[in-house]
TrEMBL record:
It is a peripheral membrane protein. Residues 18-266 form the ABC transporter domain. InterPro entries: AAA+_ATPase, ABC_ATPase_HisP-typ, ABC_transporter-like_ATP-bd, ABC_transporter-like_CS, MetN_ABC_transporter-like, P-loop_NTPase. It comes from the Bacteria. It holds the Pfam family ABC_tran. SUPFAM superfamilies: P-loop containing nucleoside triphosphate hydrolases (SSF52540). One of its GO terms (molecular function) is ATP binding. GO terms for cellular component: plasma membrane. This is ABC-type polar-amino-acid transporter. Its EC number is 7.4.2.1.
Length: 269
C-alpha cells in the first residue's frame, strides 16, 4: 500500500479525482450499469473486481467518454464530464460540451487496454511519440526526448528502436503504458492490462503499475490479479450485474461480507 498517497488523499479530500454519482448505462433495453457510485481520491489506487459482464469496462469507458451516460453524473478533477451547467430563464440546465471541450477533458485520462494496439509499423519510440506530436503538436525533438524518458520509466529504454513484433507481450504492454504516460494524464485507467499476457509476463507489467502507484499516480485498475489488489489498492470495488456489491479497503479481500464477493474470490484465488 502506498502510504504517501494515502496521506495525500486524506489531506485533499476536497476535490476527488473521480466522482461518479448514480451512473446508469443502457444499450437499448440492456441495462448494464444500474446506479454506480464511486469516489476516487487523488493519488490513490482503486481496483475494480467483478465477474465478466458486470459492467467494469463500460464504467471505465464512461469515465473516458468513449461512451455517453444514460443517467447520473461523473466529475473528473471536480469538473462535470460531457456537460456544463447553464442557467436559462432562471432554470439550471445541462448543455452538451463540444468535441474540442470533450477532447480537453479526455486528455486528463490515460487508458491502457487488454490489447495493446501499438502501431506495428512504428518502433516503440515512435509509438510513444505519436500522440504528443499529432494531438499536442509537440516538436519532434521534444517528443523524442519525452518518449525516451517514458520508455525508461517503464524499463524499456534499451528497446526504444524495436518494432512491436520484436517485443514480448509484456514489453508491448509496457510501451502502451509509456504511450499513455507521454500525454501526462492526471489519472490512469487500466482495463485488464495483463489478461492477454502469458503468465510469466504478467509480473513485469504489474511491477510497472506498482511503481506508478508509488510515484503517486491516481489509478483505476480493472484486474483479476488479487495479489496486486491486496498490495497496491487503497480502495477495492466489487461489481456484479451493474451495481457495486461491496466496497472497502484492501482488507475486504481477506474478509468479504457479501456472499457474491465471497463466491467470486473463491473462484479467482
Ligand atoms: P465487464 O468489463 O465487467 O466484463 P462490460 O462492461 O464489458 O463488462 O459489459 C457489460 C455488459 O454490457 C455485457 O453484457 C456486455 O455484453 C454489454 N455491452 C458492453 N458494451 C456493449 C455495446 N457496445 N453494445 C451492447 N452491449 C454492450
Ligand atoms: Mg471488461
Amino acid at each position: 500500500m502506498n502510504t504517501t498517497a494515502t496521506a495525500a488523499a486524506a489531506a485533499t479530500a476536497a476535490t476527488p479525482a473521480v466522482r461518479a454519482v448514480q451512473v446508469h448505462k443502457a444499450y437499448g433495453s440492456l441495462h448494464v450499469l444500474k446506479g454506480v457510485d464511486l469516489t476516487v481520491a487523488p493519488g490513490t489506487v482503486t481496483v475494480m473486481l467483478g465477474p465478466s459482464g458486470s459492467g467494469k469496462s463500460t464504467f471505465l469507458r464512461l469515465i473516458n467518454q468513449l461512451e455517453t451516460l444514460t443517467g447520473g453524473s461523473i466529475e473528473v478533477d471536480g469538473e462535470l464530464i460531457g456537460y456544463r451547467h447553464v442557467t436559462k430563464n432562471g432554470r439550471d440546465m445541462l448543455q452538451t460540451l463540444d468535441d474540442r471541450e470533450i477532447a480537453a477533458q479526455r486528455a486528463k485520462l490515460g487508458m491502457v487496454f487488454q490489447r495493446f494496439n501499438l502501431f506495428p509499423h512504428m518502433t516503440a519510440l515512435e509509438n510513444v511519440m505519436e500522440a504528443p506530436i499529432h494531438v499536442k503538436g509537440m516538436k519532434k525533438a521534444e517528443a523524442r526526448e519525452l518518449a525516451m524518458a517514458e520508455l525508461e520509466r517503464v524499463g524499456l529504454g534499451e528497446r526504444a528502436g524495436h518494432y512491436p513484433a520484436e517485443l514480448s507481450g509484456g514489453q508491448q504492454q509496457r510501451v502502451a503504458i509509456a504511450r499513455a504516460l507521454a500525454m501526462k494524464p492526471d489519472i490512469m485507467l487500466f482495463d485488464e492490462p495483463t489478461s492477454a499476457l502469458d503468465p510469466e509476463l504478467v509480473g513485469e507489467v504489474l511491477n510497472v503499475m506498482r511503481s506508478l502507484a508509488d510515484e503517486g499516480m491516481t489509478m483505476i485498475v480493472v484486474t483479476h490479479e488479487i495479489g496486486f489488489a491486496r498490495e497496491v489498492a487503497d480502495q477495492i470495488v466489487f461489481m456484479a450485474d451493474g451495481v457495486v456489491v461491496e466496497k472497502g479497503g484492501p482488507e475486504i479481500i481477506d474478509n468479504p461480507t457479501e456472499p457474491r464477493f465471497k463466491d467470486f474470490l473463491q473462484h479467482v484465488l
